[in-house]
Design brief:
Blueprint lengths: L2 E10 L2 E10 L10 E7 L6 E4 L1 H9 L3 E2 L1 H10 L3
Parallel strand pairs: 1-5
Antiparallel strand pairs: 1-2, 2-3, 3-4
Length: 80
């Protein structure tokens, strides 16, 4: 099973926020996930980023792949 850390879109029309989730790569983007490890709200100025660093590092140590956008978010939050 290939595990990936990616964004999941939440919110309403024109008011999106995103959750950083750990999911099986075979699942659809809005589908089932294993764990939520953070949130990203780009509508707030500055953008609000909250990441559970311990869980992010745990999943990275287990071999989870990271999407390019999540990689940038993790760098900004200091988890990478």
């Amino acid at each position: 099973m290939a595990v990936v850390i990616r964004l999941r879109r939440m919110g309403t029309k024109r008011r999106p926020f995103y959750r950083l989730v750990v999911a099986d790569s075979r699942m659809p983007v809005g589908g089932r996930f294993i764990e939520t490890i953070g949130q990203y709200n780009l509508l707030e100025k500055p953008a609000k980023i909250s990441v559970n660093r311990e869980r992010a590092l745990y999943w990275l140590s287990q071999g989870a792949k990271v999407s390019p956008t999540v990689k940038q978010i993790l760098k900004k939050s200091g988890a990478l």
